[in-house]
Design a protein that fits this description.
The protein is built from 5 helices and no strands. It is an all-alpha fold. It has a domain of 76 residues. The mean pLDDT is 92.
Length: 130
Amino acid sequence: MSKAARTPRSRPVFLNLAQIALPVGALTSIGHRLSGVLLATGVPALLYLLQRSLGGEAGFVEATALLSQPLVKIFLVALAWALAHHMLAGIRHMLTDMDVGSALGNARRSAWGVNLAALAIAVLAAGAVL
C-alpha cells in the first residue's frame, strides 16, 4: 500500500477572514478602494446640493437645511476622510510604482502615514462640521 493511500485526506481549511491579521499595506489598499467608492457616490450628491444652492434663495435654504442634519454631517466627515485617504494613498502608490519608498520598511511607514494623516484630516473635518 502506498503512503498516500495510508494518510488521511486533508480537508479544506475554513479561513475566518475576521481573524486574519492583514498587513498595514493591505489595509491601506482596501481603504483606497473604499474611499474611491465613497467618492464616486458622494461627489455627485454634493454637486447636486451645490447646484440647488446656487439656483436661488429657496434652493439655498433647502440645501442649508439638509446639510444641518446629523446624518448628512457624518456623511460629510466620511467624504473628507475619503478624499484625504484616496489622495494620499494614490500619491503613495504612484511613488512606489517609481520605486520611491518601495522597500518593505519604507512601504510600511508610508502606509501608516497615509492611514494616520487621513484619520487626522477626518477628525479636523469632524471638528469643523459637527
